[in-house]
Amino acid sequence: TVCANDTDPVALEAIKMNCELNGVYLDTSSDYVIGSKIGDWDVVFLGDMFYDSDFADLFNQWLPRLSRSGVNIYVGDPGRLPLVNHPLKRNLVSLFRCPLPENCLRENSGMSTGTVWKYTG
Fold it and tell me: Which has the closest alpha carbon to 45: 23, 20, 76, 70?
């Protein structure tokens, strides 16, 4: 079972539309789960979550707890400064890098490469 989570209702609607277009079903949740008690999760994917230093700090205790409980954690990030300089970065191993498409380059003030990281803490 897959559950997509976002507190933004527009993002959740976009997820549902994308699933419908691709013939995929998944659950969605608007619950705020960051820092919460660990659910019955095998894998957690974090997408572009390090856009703000204060927000990024919310992961300092949660990701190690998830990892210790056996959850595999993957982070996708376009090179945002709060992640580049974040203490969690020392526990991330780069798995995949790709150039950002032209439309993202125009929107992202100098960030040119997206990276998928595995958290190993």
Answer: 76
- Helix, strand, coil shares, percent, the chain, to 5: 35, 25, 35
Find the DSSP H helices in the chain.
9-22, 53-57, 59-68, 81-84, 102-107
Structure confidence by residue, pLDDT tens digits, 92-118: 999 999 988 888 777 767 778 889 999
Whole-number Cα distances in Å, 105 to 46, 53, 85, 100: 21, 22, 21, 6
Cα distance between residue 46 and residue 97, in whole Å: 16
Exposure string for 4-30, b = 16+ CB within 10 A, e = fewer: bbbeeeeebeeeeeeeeeeeeeeebee
